[in-house]
Hints:
Number of helices: 6
Distance between the termini: 69 Å
Order of helices and strands: HHHHHH
Strand content: under 5%
Helix content: over 70%
Number of strands: 0
Largest sheet: none
Number of domains: 2
Shape: elongated
Amino acid sequence: MVRFGxxxxxxxxxxxxxxxxxxxxxxxxxxSGDSRSAMVIEVDEQVLALAVDNRERxxxxxxxxxxxxxxxxxxxxxxxLVREAYRRGLHDDGVIRTRLMNKMRLLLGAGYAEP
Length: 115
């Protein structure tokens, strides 16, 4: 027991032990959620149609088969960015909040009364 007491007075040991505990706790927290499903991006027919429609409106013409894959790749890249932004808490930004409110006002129509 005397050796343990002597070891506890060593700053390097205390630093390494504390760091190991924090590392273990952090890894434990990451495994608690369903991280596998958070990494999966499901693309159904509706999502594909939306991606193709967005690309066609952008180009002003019907798109080719190769461009369909590119439109889908763009959608997946954007979805990854959005999920990462949410993970980092960037959706709590005031500017983003204002843009979302303005978008909802636009969707609700011109008859919406300002608060």
